[in-house]
């Protein structure tokens, strides 16, 4: 205890963090193992009842839990490596080669394993002393298990179900399940092809409609121009005909009116009774 007080801060922080991390890993690992056992019992029950498709779907969840447990095992192994080489890490300012992979892998895993919050504290301690991790020195298995995970293949799922059946001494033939999965995959492929064909037909129809509309618009524009030209000619002809008709009507009116010479028309100031008086 007296010697512990005189230890550097890096040593004390790394030692305590790795010890707390191992406790945390044991707790979360037990929970994952319990879920693995539960999924295995479900798969066994489905196989006994002849529900192969349900057992196949549960195999994906089982593989995911096993992947996380394997990540925990790798992290615990790297923690042991650091705790064993802490005295060597104190002597050297740079990270020694014996624990370079462990340091880089733990710094990398802090962003991918949220179940262990102590990884963030250890990452802060290690980066403060050695800098950021080196990508080339990170464990490849940890990278494969922590990066963006793809859905497991059909063969891997069937193999896990087969292994569980052998573990619990169940006679199970996967041929029926394989045939069903192949039929489903072929049906999905046919549906995809039909959808792509329908989409192509829709696109062709839309293109033909657009072409027809453009043709109709061009025809309408041509007809409109022709109509406008014909209307202009008709209006000009009608205006000329109306003007000629007016001229002829004026000429006819002038012909009908006969201009009499001055003196024949009785002036307005004479009265018919005056002539009678003069005769009398």
Automatic annotation (TrEMBL):
Protein name per its UniProtKB record: IST1-like protein
Assigned protein family: Belongs to the IST1 family.
InterPro entries reported in the protein's UniProt record: Ist1, IST1-like
Record field: compositional bias (Basic and acidic residues): 193-210
Disordered, as annotated region: 193-280
Species classification: Eukaryota, Viridiplantae, Streptophyta, Embryophyta, Tracheophyta
Family matches, as Pfam families: Ist1
Chain intervals with Basic residues compositional bias: 249-259
Gene3D superfamilies given in the database record: Vacuolar protein sorting-associated protein Ist1
Bias (Low complexity) ranges: 230-244
Domain of life: Eukaryota
């Amino acid at each position: 205890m007296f010697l512990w007080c005189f230890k550097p801060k890096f040593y004390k922080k790394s030692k305590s963090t790795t010890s707390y991390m191992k406790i945390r890993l044991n707790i979360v690992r037990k929970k994952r193992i319990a879920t693995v056992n539960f999924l295995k019992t479900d798969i066994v029950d489905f196989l006994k009842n002849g529900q192969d498709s349900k057992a196949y779907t549960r195999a994906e969840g089982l593989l995911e839990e096993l992947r996380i447990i394997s990540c925990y095992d790798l992290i615990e192994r790297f923690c042991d490596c650091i705790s064993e080489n802490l005295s060597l890490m104190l002597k050297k300012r740079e990270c020694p080669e014996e624990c370079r992979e462990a340091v880089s892998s733990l710094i990398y895993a802090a962003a991918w394993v949220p179940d262990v919050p102590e990884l963030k504290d250890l990452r802060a301690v290690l980066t403060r002393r050695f800098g950021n991790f080196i990508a080339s020195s990170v464990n490849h298995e940890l990278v494969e298990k922590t990066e963006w995970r793809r859905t497991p293949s059909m063969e891997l799922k069937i193999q896990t179900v087969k292994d569980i059946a052998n573990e619990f001494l169940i006679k199970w033939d996967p041929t029926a399940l394989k045939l069903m999965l192949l039929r489903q995959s072929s049906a999905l492929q046919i549906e995809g092809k039909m959808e792509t064909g329908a989409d192509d037909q829709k696109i062709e129809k839309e293109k033909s409609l657009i072409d027809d509309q453009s043709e109709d618009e061009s025809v309408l524009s041509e007809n409109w121009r022709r109509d406008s030209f014909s209307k202009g000619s008709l209006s000009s002809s009608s205006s000329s005909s109306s003007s000629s008709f007016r001229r002829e009507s004026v000429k006819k009116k002038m012909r009908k009116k006969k201009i009499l010479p001055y003196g024949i028309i009785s002036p307005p100031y004479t009265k018919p009774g005056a002539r009678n008086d003069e005769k009398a």
